[in-house]
Structure formats: C-alpha cells, structure tokens
Amino acid sequence: MNVFDNVGDFIFPIFVYECESNYQNSLRLRNLNDSKVFINNIPVFIQKLIDLKICNILIFGIPAKRDSFGASSFDKNGITQNAIKTIKSNFGSRVNIISDVCICQYNTSGHCGVCCYDGANNSNEPKKNTRILKIDNDKTLSILGKISLSLSESGTDFIAPSSMMDGQVFYLRRVLENNDYDGIKIMSYSSKHNSSLYTPFRSNNFFKSDFIDKSSYQNSFYNLSESFREVIMDIDEGADWVMIKPSLWYMDLVKMMKSYTDTPLVVQNVSGEYALVQAAADNKWLNKTEWSALSLMSMRRAGADKIISYFIFELLNKLLDK
Ligand SMILES: [Zn+2]
What is the distance in A from the centroid of ligand 1 to the CA of 7? Predict the structure, then answer.
C-alpha cells in the first residue's frame, strides 16, 4: 500500500474565486492556499493537477457577492458553473468534476438551508436582532434542485449534496432523472458530523466566520447508529458514492460501513485536520510529508475507497520532487 498506487482515488478540493481581490486577500491567511484559484487562472491551475496525476476535483465556488438567499448558487453564470465550463472546454474527460451542492458559501447566514427568522414575514429576509427559528428542509430541497440542474447543464460529472437536508439524495436523483441528466452521478455527504474541525474552511469561504450552530441538521459526534443510518439511507435513495466526514476521528465508522456495503465509500480529510498538521509542521514538530502519507494510507486501511484531502497537492509534489 503506498500513495502512488492510490493517486486515482484521491480527490482534491478546490476553491474558485470570482473576485481577484478576494482571492489575493485570502492568500494572506496562509491556510489551504494550494486549493485556491482565481477563475481566470483555472486552465494553468488544472494543468498542474493533471501533471501530478490528480484527476478528481471537488469544486467550491466563492462568489463575489452574497445575499440572504444565496441566489448566485444556481445562477447559470455563477462562479462554479463558469469554472466547470472552463475546465470541461479545456480538459474534457481528463478531469472528473465533483461539484458541491449547498448554499452556505453563497448566503450571508452560513447555514446550509433556508433560514426561517423570528417575526419575519418573508422568511428569507432577516430583520435586525431576529433569531433563526428553524431551517426549512423542503424550501432548501427546491434550491438544491436548481443548483444541481445548473451544475449539470454546465457539464459537471458528479453533484455532491452537502446540506444534510432530509431526503436530499432521493429528491435530487428524481430532479436529475426528470431532466434527462441520468448520467450525472451523486456523491452524497451522507454522514457529515457537526464539528469545529471545519473552522478553517468556514473562515476562508463564508461571509462570516462566527460560530454557526448546525446541530439540527448535521450528525452528532456521539450517535454512531445515526451516522450509520444516514449512510444506509443515502444508498437506498440512490447515491453512487457515500461519504463520511471528518476522517481520522471517524475511522470506526468507516470500517463498520465498509463491512456492510460495496457502494464506494469516500472520506473527507477536512480543513481542521489539515490545519493541525500544518501548524505543527510550521513549528517543526513533525514531518508533514511522513505524517500526511501515513494518515492517508490509514484511511485506506480502514476501508476508504476515495479520499478527499488538502494534503495531496503538496504531498505528490514532494514525492515526485516537482
Ligand atoms: Zn453547506
């Protein structure tokens, strides 16, 4: 078992920026920088990945403007949609594009669903000092459907619903089928746990980086049977690949799922897991190359068929001595 035997099973997350000054500012955070690209630089960036034999990418769009509704998430000329078109017209099937389907990067609340606010007539328009009463599952599904159609039209290979709304895979599978997109696959964020390990991603990609309580729709760390059930339900609803997230803290679940199903199992090695190692490496407390190679291989050993990780760009560069 080694990293090179598994290059085709790695998925590299990328953040595509619509606004160049936002892109430049984000580089100053010195966190996850390998994953960031300004939309105009996409062809050069993707060619570098192909040179490293990275052929699977998970795209997150970073829009220039956000609103309370997250409307640019399903704009035909939105940032993710334009990035997909550029990649497909330059590289065709050499790149397998997996596109995140959610509204949290596009709205101002940072929530993955439509928020209903206390005392607001229009549930999407918060007034000052109002509080969120609930996340509206079905209104969110309808937006996820629009996002998925716009991404499919743009040429994505996979949609990756990450909102953790009930019934999202079933709903989106029907939307794709009813619009003749049967060939588009679904990688579902099946068991996405409520966790502070996503903080570096949120600080970089969200409108605000304050604490956001997503416990009403993301899985609990404590409830293994719920996590297991969520994955099984997504398989029944028609997911092609299912995912467990974060990775290293959840290897028991990965091993358990692998013994239960043949559906390709993906783990996401999230931004907080990356940041811990990066910070230690910056202090010369560990060897980042060794640490990242061993941790990725341990995910394979536990049963992960595919691994989403920020480590792979630098790791492959090091190992190939580029
Ligand atoms: Zn989200």
Answer: 27
Q: How far is the CA of 294 from the centre of ligand 1 (A)?
A: 29
Residues linked to residue 307 through DSSP beta bridges, in sequence order:
10, 267
Reported as a single tens digit per residue, the pLDDT across 29-64 is 888 999 999 999 999 999 999 999 999 999 999 999
Question: Domain total for the chain?
Answer: 1
pTM of the model: 0.93
Q: What is the pLDDT of residues 137-194, one digit of tens each?
A: 999 999 999 999 999 999 999 999 999 999 999 999 999 999 999 999 999 999 898 8
Phi, psi of 247 (to 5 degrees): -105, -70
Crossing angle of the two packed helices 312-319 and 288-302, in degrees rounded to 10:
110
| Distance (Å) from CA 242 to ligand 1 centroid | 16
The residue-averaged pLDDT of 318-322 equals: 80
287 CA distance to ligand 1 centroid (A)?
A: 32
d(CA 126, CA 109) in angstroms, rounded, equals: 10
Distance, in Å, from the CA atom of 78 to the CA atom of 76, rounded to the nearest integer, reads 6
- Host domain of residue 118: 4-319
| Exposure letters 218-239 (e unless 16+ CB within 10 A, then b) | bbeeeeeeebbebbbbbbebbb
Does residue 244 sit in helix, strand or coil? Answer: strand
| Residues 254-264 as b or e (16 or more Cβ within 10 Å = b) | bebbeeeeebb
> Would residue 208 show up in a list of annotated catalytic residues for this protein?
no
Q: Choose among 147, 309, 139, 112: nearest CA to 219.
A: 112
Strands of 196-305, DSSP E: 241-245, 265-269
Whichever domain contains 86, its CATH number is 3.20.20.70
Check: CB of residue 150 under 8 Å from CB of residue 70.
no
β-pair type (132-136, 306-309): unpaired
Residue 112, token pair as written in the block: 């993955």
Q: Half-sphere exposure of 280 toward its Cβ, with a 13 Å CA cutoff?
A: 14
Active site residue 288: no
CA distance 166 to 38: 34
